[in-house]
Structure formats: C-alpha cells, structure tokens
Amino acid sequence: MKTLVLAVLNIVLLLAMPAVALSQQSLISDPEIYEKKHFQEQCKTAEFADGFIIRQDINNDGLIDAVVNEGQLTCDGQKGPQCNDDGCTYNFYLQVAEGGYFMIATAQIYGYDFVQRFGNMVLAMKMHPRFCDRTEGDPCIVTARVRGTKFVTISKK
C-alpha cells in the first residue's frame, strides 16, 4: 500500500512539474543589455537609436519598467528589420521588487502612448486596423492596462 501511494505521488509530481517549470521565467538584470547583446550577436553591425529602450512604469507599481522598440534598431544597414505592415516589434519588460526584469509581452505595433484613463496609466497601442475587425483606414487603438503580469484590454477603437 505504501508503495502504491508513493508511486501515485510520483506520477502526480511528474505531471505537475513541467507546468511549474514553464510558468517561471528567469529574471534578467537589464533588458537593454540583454536585447543589445542579442542583436549584436545577430547582426554584423547593430546600431541603436535613442528610442530603442524606453524606461517607464507601465504597470502602476512604482517600479521603472522597460519597453524595447526594435524599430529603433539598424541591423547591417537595415532600419527595423523586423518591421512590416503590422508595425514593429515591441518587447515589454516588468521590473520586480526583488531586482531584475522579465518579459511580459511582445507586440507588433505602430507605436503607443502612455495615457491616464480612470485614474490609472494605460497603454494606447496603435495597431493594424484588422485588430479592430477593419480591413483599412486609420490604425486601430487598443487600450490596455497591465494588471499583475498580464495585459488586460480595456477598449478597441
């Protein structure tokens, strides 16, 4: 009986452990260093404009987070090599109180504004019109608030 209980417990742990392992992400010390190193390894010549990284509190917790705009990268003479009709890649990193950062989201957008809505700062992301169920016209504006470690969509226009 004791062996059966241990066997069942081991099976439960084996099934649960991959989910736990996947849910945790390693912290990085600084997204700017991390991202620049990545592109310096990918490109023969990587140049970063001033807007490559923006540091601001995006989740209203008082800690300064980081947003990387890959459109401000020039890789081997090509500006924004990942940019296309959907915009450029933006990587959003949250800082944690224990020290370090982790990536919360990656989005292909035209840009964003950080605005106050209902007393909280939110991201108003300019996206391809299809994200608002349109085929053409002005960019879609998706307003999102970061709650905990998730983007929560407030509105789409």
Walk me through the structure.
This protein is an alpha+beta fold and 157 residues long. The strands form 3 sheets. It has a 4-stranded antiparallel beta sheet, covered by helices on one side. A 4-stranded antiparallel beta sheet has the order 8-9-10-11, with no helix packed on it. A hairpin with a 2-residue loop joins strand 8 and strand 9. The protein starts with a helix and ends with a strand. Keywords: Signal.
Q: Which residues sit in consecutive blocks of at least 5 with pLDDT less than 50?
A: 1-23
Q: What's the total helix number?
A: 2
User: How many beta-strand segments?
Assistant: 11
> Helices and strands, in N-to-C order?
HHEEEEEEEEEEE
> Kindly, what is the distance between the CA atoms of the first and last residues, rounded to a whole number of angstroms?
62 Å
The major pleated sheet works out as:
4 strands, antiparallel
Helical fraction = 10-25%
Query: Cα-atom Rg, whole angstroms?
Result: 20 Å
How is the secondary structure organized here?
Layout: H1 2-23, H2 31-42, E1 46-48, E2 53-56, E3 65-69, E4 73-75, E5 78-79, E6 88-95, E7 101-109, E8 111-117, E9 120-127, E10 140-147, E11 150-156
Antiparallel strand pairs: 1-4, 2-3, 3-6, 4-5, 6-7, 8-9, 9-10, 10-11
